[in-house]
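Morning F.,

Quick status update on the modeling queue. The single chain you submitted on Monday has been processed. Sequence for confirmation:
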Amino acid sequence: MNTSPSPDVLLKALRKITAALQGVGHPPVVIGDLARQAWGSKRDATSIQLLVPSGEAERGAILGAARGEGLQQEPGPAPLRLKYADAKLGGEVGVDLLEASTPFLKQVIGRAQRGPVLQMTLPVASCDDVILLGVDSDRDGVIELLRANAGRIDAAYLKKEAEAAGTFDRLKSAWQEARK
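Structure tokens below.
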């Protein structure tokens, strides 16, 4: 989606997908736009991205629970790309679920901290992990987080994980830009 959904639509969608995921035993961790906001970003959220401790075997249960909460699966190659539309509020929002399918993503879940997201308290990926997850896709967001959280960033962790992921040069470039 190119436009930002209203805060009411975001909150309702977040409540519904969280209820669905918790109902099937897969409590989510907030990543993406909403995690950046939780760590100080001033940019509007355009969608909901959640990391879930599940895999391919649990997709059917997750999709069934999401449908039960009024979310619809979007067509395309991403099996857990959903949409929530609310006619009463007059808006819709994309909801992307990312399965914790790698050791790094499982580590992100383990490092998550409970924090405020919209009007909810949910596990949120650590600032360091939000930076690492965005280094390839959201340079401006990464720079904003580096500037806003300079005193709490674990540089050694960022370096180690970025080197392991092959993204260290992009992270280093963003960090240099953030220091300007």
